[in-house]
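Working notes for the structural subgroup meeting. M.R. asked for a predicted model of this chain before we commit to crystallization trials. I am recording the input and output together here so anyone reviewing the notebook later can reproduce the run.

Input as submitted:
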Amino acid sequence: MLIYSQKLGGINVKKKIIIVGASHGGHQSILELLSRYEDIDITLFEAGNFVSFMSCGMELYLENSVTDVNAVRNFRPESFPQENVHILNNHQVTKINSDKRTVFVTDLENGKQTEESYDKLILSSGVNPKSLPIAGNELENVYLMRGYDWATKIKSKLENPEVKNITVVGAGYIGIEAAVKAGKHVTLLDVIDRPLGTYLDSELTDIISAHLADKGVEIHTGVKISAFSGQNNKVQFVKSNQGDFPSDVVIQAAGVQPNTEWLKGTVALDERGWIKNDEYLRTNLPDVYAIGDATLAYSIAARKKVPVALATVARREARYLVKHLFEKTPAVPFAGIVGSSALSVFDYHFAQSGLNSFTAERAGVKIASSFYEDTLRPSYVPEDKGNPKVYVKLFFDPETHRLLGGAVLSTYDITAQGNVLALAISHQLKVEDLAEADFFFQPGFDRQWSLLNLAAQHALGEVEFTRK
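Returned structure, recorded in token form:
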């Protein structure tokens, strides 16, 4: 364990660390600080009342697959009984004075404002859900799909037999989760041309779209919403260029925006409000650092910073940052992230890592791709005995064959293959490496060449391995 302290007149003075935000980045920062240092004092300020709800666990809560809604959290304030850790909810940091090394904090319960000093300040302020800038947002039963309060409100409506029609705005991860778990007549609306279009390529989204339709989800793409309308202050319709959609409840899942308005004029932000930090996660202010969803993360695949709002990213950044927190110049820069995620859509499960066609184009990265379809196990095993179809999409540099991304999809849970892809991408392996990688074979689980072996061999244009 490393020990950092200042001595004034022979008396140890603890280094004071302030953390803004109690989600994944804030939580991991506390864990790392306690693991690595002794003479420190940690204060975490959280503007919300609930510490700290995992919005990524909302899907499980909506389907009654959690012990209790109050358990869907990273930690409780009492999780850290140490005398040098102070967790304060309902406390909003409103301003930074970098010259004095202080922050201004408002107690939201009584309105009292205090000024707190710091030696190191870690910003993990996160993001806010986007609300469409249209008329009708103030109507009852128009909700956002994020946070403890919204989760409990949505759950009460899903359990209300009077609610028949639910309209979900946005067909990304959060919107799909809402559509799958609603258990009502669901209409899914998006401005782009297909559900999950920013995460998966069309070969895979076509399969998922057909499956959603089979399960009764009404999908409309290319939709431009103009207003939410209703009577008696309750929403009744979503108005759009494709007509009016009857709606007892509207769930907005149209993306997020960085929670950085309060930092303008103090901490350097880009034109969209993301906090600018360097390769050591430092901001433009001395001893002020930024991690998590409010920043752009360095992508190993894209070799540049891109928006990746994932818990895994925030925790890796926090681990790196705290490890090097007291170095004048860190020994090494932050290595970067891959960006991996997974989701179940009724009977299908998928995982994706790194870049895809959409994100590569947005990042200005030239890619080649290959789509592979097969069965999970040898063909002599029938489908009804556990041998479903499996699908793989690989993305790679067309010149060097360096792996840049990939996705897997099946009704069988093969999402762990996404972790294999993530490891291959992070270590900058080539398609040839994946084609020859040594994986296990047992016909109860896999093929003589594993699924990713075969997908890589297909990408290289090799003669297809026999399916017999």
